[in-house]
Amino acid sequence: MKASELRDMKPVELSRKLDELKQELFNLRFQHAINQLDNPLRIKAVKRDIARVKTVMSGIELTDAADS
């Protein structure tokens, strides 16, 4: 997922996306622990997506705080 796509989302959608990514990361880690993970690089990609979402969310919070 690209950061530009995330910037177009509303804060509610971003928090929902963050929850989905955290759940996916949990499932991937669980599969990795029991040696059933097909693509271990997916864990890295999901972690990066989580970081992107958090970065966009903090940027939105900062701009809202500056506007107030």
Concise account of the structure shown:
With 68 residues, the chain is an all-alpha fold. It has helices at 3-7, 11-33, 41-67. The chain has one domain (3-67): Helix Hairpins.
Can you walk through the features of this model?
The protein is mostly helical. Helix content is 81%, strand content 0%. The chain contains three helices and no strands. The chain has a single domain, classed as Helix Hairpins, CATH 1.10.287. It is elongated and about 50 Å long. α2 packs antiparallel against α3. The longest helix is centred in the last third of the chain and has 27 residues. The N and C termini lie far apart (30 Å).
Shape designation: elongated
What structural class should be given to the helix and strand makeup? mainly alpha
Rg from alpha-carbon coordinates: 14 Å
Which blocks of ≥5 consecutive residues have pLDDT under 50?
A: none
In CATH terms, what is the fold-level topology? Helix Hairpins
User: Can you give the mean pLDDT?
Assistant: 93
Alpha-carbon distance between the termini? 30 Å
Q: Which labels suit this protein?
A:
elongated; 68 residues; Helix Hairpins; mainly alpha
List the helices and strands and how they pair.
Layout: H1 3-7, H2 11-33, H3 41-67
Helix pairs in contact: 2-3
